[in-house]
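user: can you give me the structure for this one chain? C-alpha cells are fine.
assistant: on it. calling the predictor now.
[tool input]
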Amino acid sequence: MNTKQMLFAAAVLAGLAACGGGSADAGPPAADNTVPASATASPEAFSSYAGAIKADDQAEPLNLEKVEVPTSETAEPIVVS
C-alpha cells in the first residue's frame, strides 16, 4: 500500500469511529402505550384508532386502565373488516 492509500484508509476508519458515539445516559425511549383522548371522543374515532394500530408482538400492550370505550345507542354498527 502506498502512503496515500494508507492515509485514506486511516481517515475512513477515523470517520467511522466518530459516528458510533452517543450519550451514555440517554437510555431507551419510553414506550407510549396510552390511548389518546381524541380516540375516545366517539365510537367512530375509537374504531378508527383501534383499526390503525399495527399488530406487533414485540410492542407493549395498550394501557386501558383509565379508558372508557365510547358507545352509542343510536349510531349504526360499524363494519369490521
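assistant: here you go. Residues 3-19 form the longest helix (17 residues). The helical segments are 3-19, 43-52.
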